[in-house]
Each structure stands twice: as C-alpha cells, then as structure tokens.
Amino acid sequence: MRMCLSVSSVFFLFVIFIGCTDNQTPESYLQKVLDNLERVESATYVVFNEGWRPGEKNPMHSEYSYIEEYNNPVDTVIGAAYVRLNKEKTQLEFTYDGDIRVLTYHDKKGLVVDDFSNNPYPIRLVSPPFFNYTKSIIRYILTTRDSIDVQVDDLGKEYHLKLTIDGEKQVEFFGSPHYVENSYFEPLSIYEIWISKSTNLPYKVRRELCHDISETTVSDVILNRLDINNFDIYTYFPEDYEIRKYGESYARPHTPLAMESKPAPGWTLNDMNEQPVSLEDLKSNVLLINFTGIGCGPC
C-alpha cells in the first residue's frame, strides 16, 4: 500500500492520502468528486439521521426520511430547494423553496410558513440537503485559506475524508461556511465524509461540533430525474391543516400542569463544579432554577 503526501502552504492544507495512484493526487480526486456533485441537478433518496450530545453514547434522535432535493442557483442562501417527507412519502415534514420554509406540527394539524421577514439572524438557518451540504464542505476544503487538516483514507470500496478546522470560531455550512462564536466551549469543527468509489459521490456525512454531533446516511439514490420548474411547495400542504405565519401563536386555553401549585419534590443534583446541590438547601420566597443541557449555554 502506497502513501502520498501533499502539503499546500498557500491554503494551509495538509492531506494524507492512502492508496492513491501515481496520477491521482488528493486535491485532484476531491476536485473530481466536487465536479460530480456540481452535476447533481436533482436527487431523491432515503436519509437516515442520528444526533448526539457530546459525551453521550445513545442518540437523542434517530429517524428515516424521504428527500427530494433540487439544485437552485436562484437561492442565494444555500443554493438548493427540497422537501422532506416521512419514509412512506405520505406526510410532509419540512420544505424550503428558496423563498419560504414550512414547518409541520402534526399534533396540532398545523403548518407554519416562514418568509424570513422576522428572522433575527444574519443568515437563514435552513439545514441544507445532503448533496448540497457535502458539496459545500468539499468546495471549502479546496478553496479555503483557513488552517485545516484533511485526511483521506482508502477503506476498500470507499474513501473516508476527515476535515478538522483549526480556528477561534466554529465553522458551519449553510451553502457557504459561516463562522460562529461560542462563548461556552472551546471551538470544535470536525466533518467526516464517506465517498463511494463506484460513484465518486458521498453517501454519508458526520458533523461534530462542541455542542452537537450529527450523522446522515443516504440510500436508494436516484439522480437528475426531477425538474425544479415542476417543484411547487404548496402541492405538499395537507388540505386539512391550519396555516399560520411564523411568529404567530396558537390561541389555546391554559392547562394546569400536574405539579402546579404543589410543593416541589425533593432532589439533589451536581452543579457545574460537581458539587451536590439540594432543593431543601435553597431558601427563597421566589426561586428560579435554570436547567441546561450539556450542549447548551444558559437559556
């Protein structure tokens, strides 16, 4: 087995490529994969998503979905449009067409339409679909001037790519890289992509940040059979669902909670310094207790 080493001082790119051929450098192979991704005008696939909090072994969520993804150059945010249905393709879960995103609340038989007019963030927080997402990551590797480490390993039928970004901010990909401040944790940005040798296209991606870990795998992929000109977001709306604008609340009566107006049960938990804190030790007329998850700063 042969090892090829390539160092680019211009882009601070350090790559280890195991099993490469004499006429194939790491950069040239990743450019080949990027070229293939650029040719993906549409895709349908089944996607399996999992997510973890750092330090936890059991996923917080695991779910299958069905995706219809479109390349959408008109959209200047992520450059894509897509719809996510349940695996059986019978129920809308989420959709984005470049102008609006639609959130579903099946328990209330409601749809929330967000035109981003009330967006408090500098970008639209729309999670990109799989091929658009991996395309952004590989393009970043080939063009960035950030300090990065890239390792590509030959696993037989596939290549495994691991990108580690060294910086003072976390890097997330919403069409293009965005640099995110995090005051509570050391910055961590690791992305892994598994690339099939038979197609020279990614089929799995893993994202590891200081507060969140996620993994996405696609299967049953069909490419370039759909036309974005036929994509109409409204055809996916269930007819019997209430539609409201993002930011508007449902009017609902107050339902008392089971423990409301009753003495709180006793408990003892460890604080951030691993010291025990007991409810009975906290004496006050009004007591506000803020419970936060391992992946969150204070709310």
- Specify the structural class: mainly beta
Low-confidence stretches: 1-19
**Rg (CA only):** 23 Å
The helix content, as a percent range, equals under 10%
Rounded mean pLDDT score: 86
The gross shape turns out to be globular
| First-to-last CA distance | 51 Å
How many extended strands? 18
Order of strands, main sheet, comes to: 1-2-9-10-13-14-15-3-4-5-6-7-8-16
Order of H and E elements? EEHEEEEEEHEEEEEEEEEE
Structure write-up:
The structure is a single chain. The chain is mainly beta. Helix content is about 10%, strand content about 40%. It has a 14-stranded mixed β-sheet. A two-stranded antiparallel ribbon has the order 11-12. The chain has a two-stranded antiparallel sheet with strand order 17-18. Strand 13 and strand 14 (about 200-210) form a beta hairpin. Helix 1 packs antiparallel against helix 2. The longest helix is centred in the middle third of the chain and has 14 residues, at about 130-145. Residues about 1-20 have low confidence and may be disordered.
